[in-house]
Write a structure and sequence with these properties.
Elements lengths: L5 E8 L4 E7 L41 E4 L2 E4 L21 H12 L5 H4 L4 E11 L8 E11 L4 E6 L10 E7 L22 E4 L2 E8 L1 H9 L14 H10 L4 E2 L27 E2 L8 H7 L3 E9 L8 E9 L4 E6 L12 E6 L33 E4 L2 E8 L1 H10 L31 H9 L10 H7 L3 E8 L16 E6 L4 E6 L10 E7 L25 E5 L2 E8 L1 H8 L9 H11 L4 H11 L6 E3 H10 L6 H11 L6 E3 H9 L1
Antiparallel strand pairs: 1-2, 3-4, 5-6, 5-10, 6-7, 7-8, 9-10, 11-12, 13-14, 13-18, 14-15, 15-16, 17-18, 19-20, 19-24, 20-21, 21-22, 23-24, 25-26
Helix pairs in contact: 11-14
Length: 669
C-alpha cells in the first residue's frame, strides 16, 4: 500500500544481513472534500483505476540528493529519519538482532520491506590508499584519495576517486556500485556494515583503504546504533603534490608592462637584458600576465627577421635559411623554413610553431609548472639583433636582416637602428662532377646523352614560344676552308665553297656545299642541321654555339666541329640584323653611283628627256615613284636597299620629290 508517514525505524534480517527499515502508519486514503467514500472498513481498495490525485497538493517536487549551485554540482546528505523518541533504532551487535526484531515488530506493528525503508540512505566514508612507484626513485609512493559510499538498501558499495590535476590517472568512478565479496570468506559472503565498525582499515578486493573521516549522517548513524568508528590520524604526505604546491606558491616573478617605454635599448650590441624603466608586475599563484593592453596596442604587428642555420660542420649538414616572426601582442615566436627550388628537401613550412621559446632549452618543464614561473627566461624583442645569434631549441640562428617595419619599430621604440644586411659571403665550394661519356655515334649527341641522364631516354624539350617567334629568322654566310689553320689540309680544299645557315628558332646550324663540276667533290649536305658545341669548350655538352659566334667582322674565322671556316660575305638580311636596319652600314652611296655610271654610259641625254616628259608643270622635279620607274626602265638592276639609300640621299627635304637635272649631272657628268 501507499505510505503516508513513518513512526519509527526497525531492522529485518535477510540472509544474515541486518537492514534498517521504516515502519509506516496504518493505511488510509487521502482526505479531500471531493471524496464521499467511507474511510472505514468499506473504503475503496487502493488499486489501479480506484485512485485519484489530491487536489489540495501544491508541492510536486521530487526528492533528490544531487543538485547544482552556482554552476557547480553538489550532493546533499540524506538526513536520518527519527522516530517518536527522536533517534534511530539499531541493535548493538549481531547477537542482539533477534531481540531487536521482536521489539520492533511489536512496537511498530506492520512489516516494511528493506527496499522501501532504506531507499536513498547512504553512508559516506573518506579514505586513501598508497601505491609504490618503483620507476621513480625520488617518489617512494603516491597517495590516492577516495570516497566510499555504502548503500544500506542492498549492501552495495561504490568508490569514487578525488580529482587531482595532471595526476595521470583516469579519475572519477573508481569502482561501480555492486556487492563486494569479503576477504577470507566464500563467494557468497559479502562486505557488510560491520566491516566498517571499530576499524580504520577496510579491505576491498585485496586493496587496503584507510578511513580518514565520514559525513554527518554516517557519524550520527553509528552513534545512535552504538557502533564505534575509528579513523587514521595522519595522512602520509605525497611528495609530488608537495612539490607542485611549492612550485605554484612562488612569488616575486616580474613581467614587463608594454604600456611603459624602455629607457633606451641598453646598447644594441651589449647586454640586452639590463634593467629598464618598465613597470613590474609580481606573479603569484593566482596572478597571470595581463595581455589585454598589449593585444590592443600591438595586435597584428609582427617583427620579421631573416636568419640562417649553418650545420655544414656535421655529417650531411646543410646551410638552411629561415624567417623568424616575433608577435608583439603575446611575445610568441614562430620559425618558418624558406623553401628553395630544387633543394632536395620536402616542403616543411614551420620549424617551430607559434609559442614562447626559452633562451636556453633545458628540457620539458616539470609537471605543474606555469609559464609565469619562467618569465625572465624566455626570448623577448631585445634579444633579436641583426648581426647577432639567437638560440632556437639548440639551433644557433644567425640574424642577417630584417624587414622595414622592424627597423622602424626599434628606431621609434628604443631609439636604436638595426644593422643593414650583414649576410656573410659564401665560400666558393667546388663539387666534384662526373665527366660526361663520349659520343657513341648513334643519333645526335643529345640522343646519346639522354640514356646517360635518364634510365628511359626522354625527347629533347623545345622552347615553343621562342621557336614560334624566331623560326623565320635565318642567318646565312658564304664561307670556305681556312687552309692556314687546318691540321691536315687537302690541296683541292681551297676550291670548295660552303653556305652556313644558323636558325634562330632552335639554335641549330647546317652547312651546305654547292656542287662544282669537275671539282672531284659531290657537294650537297656537309653538316646536317643540329646544335653544335663550341670549339674547345670546357663543359662540353650544353655549351652550344649561338649567333654571337658567327656574327663577327668579315672576313673572319669560325670553327664548326673542329673545321675552320673563313666567313667571306653574308646576305642583306643578316646585315640588317647586325646593323639594326642602318642602311649606311649596309650599302655605300658611292658604290651605287659607280654602278649607275657603268650601266648608263652614253645614255645621259636619253635619261634626261624621259625625266622632262614626266615633268608636266616644268618645275624640274619628279616624284620618287617616277625616279624608281625611270631606273627600272633603263635596267640599272638596283636592289631594294640601294633604291632606299638613293632616295634618302636625294630627298633631303622629305617631301617626296627629286630634282632630276641635278641628279643626272651628278651621276653621269
Amino acid at each position: 500500500g501507499r505510505l503516508h508517514g513513518t513512526v519509527g525505524l526497525g531492522w529485518r534480517a535477510q540472509s544474515d544481513r541486518v537492514i534498517l527499515v521504516e515502519a509506516p502508519a496504518p493505511m488510509s486514503r487521502p482526505s479531500t472534500s471531493l471524496s464521499s467514500y467511507d474511510q472505514g472498513d468499506g473504503a475503496v481498495p487502493f488499486l489501479p483505476g480506484n485512485t485519484f490525485n489530491d487536489p489540495n497538493k501544491t508541492n510536486f517536487k521530487k526528492s533528490h540528493a544531487f543538485d547544482y549551485r552556482s554552476g557547480t554540482p553538489i550532493e546533499f546528505d540524506v538526513p536520518a529519519k527519527e522516530d517518536a523518541g527522536g533517534s534511530p533504532s539499531r541493535p548493538q551487535s549481531r547477537q542482539s538482532y533477534a531481540a531487536s526484531e521482536r521489539d520492533n515488530t511489536r512496537s511498530q506493528g506492520e512489516f516494511v520491506p528493506a527496499f522501501a525503508g532504506l531507499d536513498g540512505k547512504v553512508l559516506r566514508f573518506e579514505a586513501f590508499t598508497t601505491e609504490q612507484v618503483p620507476e621513480n626513485l625520488t617518489e617512494p609512493f603516491r597517495v590516492r584519495k577516495f570516497s566510499i559510499m555504502y548503500y544500506l538498501v542492498d549492501d552495495s558499495i561504490q568508490i569514487n576517486e578525488h580529482k587531482q590535476a595532471n595526476s595521470g590517472y583516469a579519475q572519477g568512478v573508481f569502482m561501480k556500485r555492486h556487492r563486494i565479496p569479503s576477504k577470507g570468506r566464500g563467494t557468497e559472503d559479502f562486505v557488510t556494515l560491520f566491516d566498517f565498525s571499530d576499524s580504520s582499515k577496510v579491505t576491498l578486493y585485496n586493496r587496503d583503504f584507510h578511513l580518514t573521516s565520514c559525513n554527518v549522517f554516517t557519524e550520527q548513524f553509528f552513534q545512535v546504533n552504538g557502533m564505534k568508528m575509528r579513523f587514521e590520524g595522519n595522512v602520509p604526505e605525497d611528495r609530488y603534490l608537495a612539490q607542485r604546491a611549492m612550485s605554484e606558491s612562488r612569488m616575486g616573478r616580474q613581467t614587463p608592462d608594454p604600456s611603459q617605454s624602455m629607457d633606451g635599448f641598453d646598447g644594441l650590441m651589449g647586454d640586452m637584458r639590463a634593467e629598464t624603466s618598465m613597470s613590474n608586475m609580481s606573479v603569484g599563484t593566482t596572478a597571470r600576465r595581463d595581455m589585454r593592453e598589449k593585444f590592443l596596442k600591438y595586435a597584428n604587428k609582427v617583427l620579421r627577421f631573416y636568419a640562417h642555420w649553418d650545420d655544414r660542420g656535421s655529417m650531411f649538414g646543410q646551410k638552411l635559411e629561415y624567417i623568424i616572426n616575433y608577435y608583439l601582442q603575446d611575445d610568441k615566436i614562430e620559425v618558418l623554413e624558406v623553401k628553395k627550388a630544387n633543394s632536395g628537401r620536402d616542403n616543411f613550412p614551420k620549424l617551430v610553431k607559434k609559442q614562447r621559446i626559452p633562451r636556453a632549452f633545458g628540457g620539458v618543464p616539470s609537471v605543474g609548472s606555469r609559464e609565469e614561473d619562467f618569465e625572465d627566461q624566455y626570448i623577448n624583442e631585445r634579444d633579436l639583433i641583426v648581426g647577432g645569434i639567437v638560440e632556437i631549441f639548440g639551433r644557433e640562428m644567425y640574424l642577417y636582416n630584417c624587414d622595414e617595419f622592424t627597423r622602424e619599430y626599434y628606431l621609434h621604440q628604443y631609439g636604436a637602428e638595426q644593422n643593414s644586411s650583414v649576410m656573410e659571403p659564401e665560400a666558393l665550394v667546388e663539387f666534384p662532377s662526373m665527366p660526361l661519356p663520349p659520343y657513341n655515334g648513334f643519333g645526335s649527341e643529345h640522343d646519346s646523352l639522354a640514356s646517360y641522364f635518364n634510365l628511359i631516354p626522354k625527347p629533347r624539350k623545345y622552347d615553343r614560344t621562342k621557336q614560334a617567334a624566331l623560326d623565320t629568322i635565318i642567318f646565312r654566310w658564304k664561307a670556305k676552308f681556312d687552309m692556314d689553320k687546318m691540321t691536315a689540309p687537302n690541296p683541292d680544299d681551297h676550291k670548295r665553297r660552303f653556305v652556313i645557315s644558323f636558325f634562330m628558332g632552335d639554335g641549330t646550324l647546317s652547312l651546305y656545299e654547292p656542287p662544282i663540276q669537275n671539282s672531284g667533290f659531290m657537294g650537297g649536305k656537309f653538316l646536317e642541321r643540329q646544335r653544335v658545341i663550341r670549339h674547345k669548350s670546357k663543359t662540353g655538352f650544353g655549351d652550344w654555339m649561338t649567333e654571337e659566334d658567327l656574327l663577327i667582322d668579315l672576313p673572319g674565322t669560325a670553327w664548326v666541329n673542329n673545321y675552320p671556316f673563313v666567313l667571306l660575305e653574308t646576305d642583306k638580311f643578316t646585315l640588317r640584323y647586325v646593323n639594326k636596319g642602318k642602311l649606311d652600314a649596309i650599302v655605300s652611296i658611292d658604290s651605287i653611283y659607280e654602278k649607275l655610271r657603268r650601266k648608263g654610259t652614253g645614255m645621259q641625254g636619253e635619261i634626261l628627256n624621259v625625266f622632262r616628259m614626266l615633268d608636266e608643270d616644268g618645275s624640274c622635279r619628279v616624284s620618287l615613284d617616277d625616279l624608281v620607274n625611270v631606273l627600272r626602265k633603263f635596267n640599272f638592276d638596283l636592289d631594294e636597299d640601294e633604291l632606299i639609300a638613293l632616295m634618302a640621299r636625294w630627298d633631303q627635304a622629305k617631301d617626296g620629290f627629286v630634282e632630276y637635272e641635278a641628279f643626272v649631272d651628278t651621276i653621269f657628268a
